[in-house]
Amino acid sequence: MRKGELTRKEIEQQPSVWSSALVETGEKKERVKHLPIEPEEVIFYGSGSSHYSALSASMVYQELTGVRSRGTPPSEIFLFPRPFTVTEEILVFPISRSGTTTETIEATTEFVNNHDAYSIGFTCHPDSDLAETVDFCISIEDAREESVVQTKSFTSMLIALQRTASTMGENEKFFKNLEKLPAKAKKVIRKSYDTVGKMVDEDDFHHFVFLGGGPLYGIAMESMLKMEEMVLEHTEGYHPLEYRHGPKSMIDDETLITLYASDSGVEYEEDLLRELKNLGATLFVVSENGRMRGMSDYSLELESGLDEFARAPLCVIPAQVMGLEFALNEGVNPDSPRHLQGVIKLGKGEK
Amino acid sequence: MRKGELTRKEIEQQPSVWSSALVETGEKKERVKHLPIEPEEVIFYGSGSSHYSALSASMVYQELTGVRSRGTPPSEIFLFPRPFTVTEEILVFPISRSGTTTETIEATTEFVNNHDAYSIGFTCHPDSDLAETVDFCISIEDAREESVVQTKSFTSMLIALQRTASTMGENEKFFKNLEKLPAKAKKVIRKSYDTVGKMVDEDDFHHFVFLGGGPLYGIAMESMLKMEEMVLEHTEGYHPLEYRHGPKSMIDDETLITLYASDSGVEYEEDLLRELKNLGATLFVVSENGRMRGMSDYSLELESGLDEFARAPLCVIPAQVMGLEFALNEGVNPDSPRHLQGVIKLGKGEK
């Protein structure tokens, strides 16, 4: 098999798998609507890519339901439980592609056994340990992957989380918007290959930065992880305006900065782009409408008609394609990254 | 002036400035005790280093008071306010060395004007914009810096935040422990020069990682920022167990990983160290008692007698010294990093 073929296939399957995710989640709609709890706090958690979908999904959930929501790595929950157990009415959303990630199971057990939390798991494996630990599970089997690096599983579980939030927030309009995502994804995949192809042709980049805020902060961090895992290059993720406060010291002529343009902070972001350009960075803007096209070196317009809470899964596609194409260009196989396995299980003080 | 002299002076002033921070904060004790609000939520925010002291301080506050606490960059507050305005009884702690950081002022104005929040500012400049915006300010003038990069201002404002948390949590024992910090700092500074001196002598490191959880996550991130700003090398910060989920792909024989050992997760951390060692990283453990000395290449024992919530400011000292000494070793002047200014003010759509 050619290098990167697994990853390429899984990226390109996203439109159809996203449809499956919407169907699978829709079938659990009645259970989601009639939970035996009125949550005062909702906690999303997972490790690696699932940590970043937790960050993004918690912002969406907060926006649609008004209920206090936060995302965290699971290790923080069982090592430092206090911030997560202030109320007695806790709803938790553990996220794990394999359904076997040790920390995610351990955090869920802590919540269920010691804090009487209600739990809904998100996974690609319905027969996993996670599925046995939670009250019920939303499983997207079509999102299972052969590649170590998550692509379609990340976006599909994120869409399942968005769909669940729309049900709990009784937001029909948002749900209708989610249904547009699969068709939009096809176009974004095509545009991503076009734009990233040009970047790779003039590839002198050895430092990558991804910037996003609100629901797109998790997307920026997931993008960072794609580049680190697949391309093994120095990559960072930040909230856009935070990047000015120190990290910009690292900019040189090998720096490529990707901004996920928000709806809320356009004027600040334009100001930021001007400064980053002056410092010598190459700029790539992923935006809804291309408003900042003239200020950037590369531009990809999503043209989704969706707000930043709904379009989040589309935004990560260009970074998935960057991971694939930059890796191949450097002779690295993105299907099986250095040092990594598909599932992380921890011993606890084992020799 | 020799390169790095400002930074060196400010690192070494920490024991005496920490005493000033405790005195200044103590003098505001009665005001802190008798706030005209019973907060249901406390929000800590700042940019750059102050973002990371916000993350650390919010964990301390949560632990000591039981009141829901979180840390965030200020841009998230005014661009995506919903997660921060769920309750009507909000206490906010804006943090800004200069007291003029645009985003921190803007977030404070949002809270005060639109959400009737009560605000206590933390700064080194009592006559600043921040001081005029908040209900009252805790100002540590001795923590003002000539260097662009924050060292003593970060730790002193963190100690002021810890002291405030101990007052609000009526935790006399924790307060007594904070009073031990200045004397402990002297020893940790000396040990840091010793240990970092050895590292620099065999410096083949071009990739630095800092790992810490709970109250030490903010410390790991601040350490990351010190290395980026001063040394301009590829540096990352993570929760310890999260580092396994992808980022470890970047480990090679030029990687130096610093772990801030916790009290809560020792067994997990020992397991982690074994794996990182097998992947070829060089390991530096900053711990209370040296339990993991045999598993690491470099070890610094704080021997403070303090728990992880109290000893957080001590932990960052080795990273400050790493920034200074690695920069000098590479011929970079840590007093005036590339691209950076001491104060960040933003235009908003200005040309």
TrEMBL record, chains A, B:
Residues 32-175, 196-337 form the SIS domain. GO terms for biological process: carbohydrate derivative metabolic process. It comes from candidate division MSBL1 archaeon SCGC-AAA259A05. This is SIS domain-containing protein. PROSITE patterns: SIS. PANTHER family: GLUCOSAMINE--FRUCTOSE-6-PHOSPHATE AMINOTRANSFERASE, ISOMERIZING, GLUCOSAMINE-6-PHOSPHATE DEAMINASE. It holds the Pfam family SIS. Coiled coil: none annotated. InterPro entries: GlmS/FrlB_SIS (IPR035490), SIS_dom (IPR001347), SIS_dom_sf (IPR046348). GO terms for molecular function: carbohydrate derivative binding.
